[in-house]
Design a protein that fits this description.
The structure is a homotetramer. The first copy, chain A, is an alpha/beta fold. Helices cover 20% and strands 21% of the residues of chain A. The first copy, chain A, is built from seven helices and 15 strands.
């Protein structure tokens, strides 16, 4: 699956499809995922909203109190640009453009100053509830964390899957851990918008064949810089525009990784509940894994 | 359970407890709720974020696009004060004050201009995953919607429970439908901050005895105006400050009510995933019910 | 001067001109305006920032305190979309488009999601300091206020000028009072974006001949609805795009009108100091008249 | 004038005074300042609004376009916390607290989450129009810029005044140039909230005796760190709380300094027009000097 194949998968779910690969999540798959719950333990996959400016957070979330001790109630306000390299968020399918189009062949002119007329994040109002699978690459490699810029190739997806004792299948939501926040804790922040560990574009056919429903990472799924000449973020471009795959960026998968080890399983019930922002291009989210 | 009993339930979960009645949700209860999933159908309990000013929305959510067709990507920004009578949100336990204290006896001075030092919404990072129960009062009464100001008394909680064929128990998250949005669709918006159907304060002991873990409504749980002289929102005050009960306000329970009828069951797996806003007093949420 | 003449005046101040009719304000004109000061009395021409939602203010300014008594200092935050029918602001020349162009023939593609590459409000960094003239139409007509939708024709400009005992000339900043806020005080708010007293398009040649440097009003200069079929805001379109005339909208000219009567003069030193917002399309302003 | 004298100057302008030392600016002083204009040249004393995060700008101004080429008009939105070390702003007298009080003896409890009940910035609605005087310390010392942390003592105020050939007097607005932005251009940004050139507290009696009406600087007037043990910002504390002196912080005085040399005069007509933010603690401003 290459960038030039972008159009080949459009309309497989109809002319008016707004959900893309989330169509793989049938009610039966949701029910099966719920049935897999054993211990009832829950884990967040989100970072706290990033309110402090840093080299990897140039536009911090503004968070202000508007009611305090003196007012008789606690109340606050926040302002956020959800895309950005420090916020755990889900991209709507209108987020990425390619050759004048967004997913399913809609013209990019549908993304207006008044919001995205097509493929807005509000189409995910009913949430994503499916089987989640953690692909833990640092664990596979026996390291704390991948270095920024370190690429992941499909053979490691196969190996991590084998190590986890499962097979990624239709409707799964795949979370790829690179150990980014471990690296940041050890080495401090860096310009993450130009250097992150992540998937090489050669992983795209693998994701396509497995019929993954959504893809997330503690980075931005793409390895940065890209190894594909002339295409800055091939995973974003092909996954979102061609495959209709919702991406979740900047997740925090540290506690999830620990819990998977403790529970000795790398799959779980995963729930993702985007805010219902009409015509929005993204939502901050707090995905919850239930073991 | 009256306002003057506020202090009697503090510290039942320890001096440092930050979760209140969410402690009723044990991993076993979460697992049992997941095991109850049958059809795998999912339903949102949230309204779209309220971006348009109205008499019941004087401080609308600001939503702006910051990337459109001309920029090469879709991106946006939003600013929100989550408390307010048009936004589906969950209150943190630091939201309401009584006699100089918040829940568990912390001084209100812990709610500062830099945020809530105690009981911030970030303590719910791992989410709420439990059994949800819909109490559908309009269905019980055979009406489309309750009129603003219409109170609900405990006997109707009993009757709705019986009609639903279940018993509310420890760890349940209770959603009370008044049909507010039906009423608004028929009669237009009104000043909801002074007039809403909801629970009379006499329901508080019922909620306490059943060990409800959290409480939500399409209104604000409280009937407005309050029937308790001198106390504007007794359910907010007693439930949050005394009982440590997280409240969810301004939910949209219309589709949930229809689905309950179609599925012929009024309980479901409920997942609520607040944004991880450090020291925040609330979060907008999109609770997802799974049948 | 009609809409179809739009291009005829471009480049009179050069290919790279960013200031338009403000070029009429030479240092000599500024100095003469300063020399006209007599009493030293100062008057604001701005409304308070509109923080309360109303039918004429659907996107209110958000204003929050971020430091209060409990924090040891007072501090706050505000968020504003300066264009809008309740905020006193100055339009940058990049604000209005006509046939694919902004003022001086720049393509509208210069107005990007990253701001206006040309004609941004920051070009007014050195401020506007010139002679101001109040044209007080309610006074001319002997009424408290003009009704919404009431048009003003050029003969009234002549008459008001005569009544004021002055001649509008090159470099003057003209403020047109319609008495809007008096009307609002008497009759309550209305949907001002579709109905306001203001100038008919036939006033444009008058403004052009007098070499007015900037134009303001307590409305939006245009009469709404427009009397020109098919052109919603002909004064905005021709004044900004063709003539390079900066417009100031939603001023408060009540105190100015009273002061002019008390001082028995309808001209004054006027200072306007837009915020230096790089690539911005407008700035809220507080124009100060000095008598 | 020491910190312990704070209360001694309160109420000199009455129990209800909201303007403090701005009372020194009588209409006659305003008129005399206007009469001093010679060339008509105007100069901004503001930096562009600081939209980019940096070590001296951890909470950047958010600036978003909400109308671009594709929408048919240019429009934008910005959100700002005016206090902060990268924004040219004027402090309201409610900004600084001392021993439970703000200026004129009002209790700090008047600074609430709903804004400052007393001494809000809106009291400056009519603007500040007076004689401005530039005290150019780098010019006095023959250097490009003062180093961060470099203190200025009263003898240098006397010397700069002599060098400028004028005497600072009642109603003057004094701008102190340290060359901060030159230093930043040469050495890059630094944590300005802990290290800035500025006035030692020993300058306070000088400012008081001269009856300065307002004080500004390209820093924050105070030298940081303070030389007064236990008082972080004695100039802020005494000037604002005791003297009722409005402070302007983070001005850009580079072009002003050059113009003073070119015009061979260090006094000018100065106009400052705060936004009319009801109960606000500050306003971003663009002070304009007219020569």
């Amino acid at each position: 699956m290459a960038v030039h194949d972008t159009r080949s998968k459009w309309r497989r779910w109809g002319e008016d499809d707004q959900l893309g690969a989330l169509n793989f999540i049938t009610p039966a798959i949701t029910a099966a995922a719920a049935a897999s719950v054993r211990s009832g333990r829950t884990v967040s996959c989100a970072r706290p909203l990033a309110t402090e400016a840093a080299v990897d957070n140039p536009a911090p979330v503004a968070h202000h109190m508007i009611g305090t001790a003196t007012e008789g109630y606690g109340a606050d306000y926040f302002a956020i640009a959800p895309h950005g390299f420090a916020t755990s968020h889900i991209d709507a399918l209108c987020h990425i453009f390619h050759e004048g189009c967004v997913y399913n062949g809609y013209a990019i002119e549908t993304v207006t100053a008044h919001g995205a007329v097509k493929l807005g994040i509000h189409h995910l109002r009913s949430g994503i509830v499916s089987r989640g699978v953690l692909i833990d690459i640092p664990r596979l490699r026996g390291v704390d964390a991948l270095a920024p810029g370190d690429p992941i190739f499909p053979d490691e997806l196969d190996a991590a899957e084998a190590q986890a004792g499962l097979t990624v299948g239709s409707g799964d939501v795949l979370f790829i851990r690179t150990g980014r926040w471990q690296w940041r804790a050890l080495h401090g922040p860096w310009e993450a918008n130009s250097s992150l560990a992540g998937l090489d574009a050669s992983c795209l056919p693998w994701l396509h064949e497995r019929q993954v429903a959504a893809l997330g990472s503690d980075g931005v799924s793409d390895v940065l810089p890209s190894l594909v000449e002339g295409v800055g973020m091939p995973v974003h471009t092909v996954a979102i525009v061609a495959m209709g795959l919702h991406l979740l960026d900047n997740l925090d998968l540290e506690q999830l990784a620990e819990t998977c080890i403790e529970e000795a399983r790398w799959n779980f019930l995963l729930t993702i509940a985007p805010l219902v922002l009409k015509r929005g291009t993204a939502s901050p989210v707090n995905p919850i894994a239930v073991f």
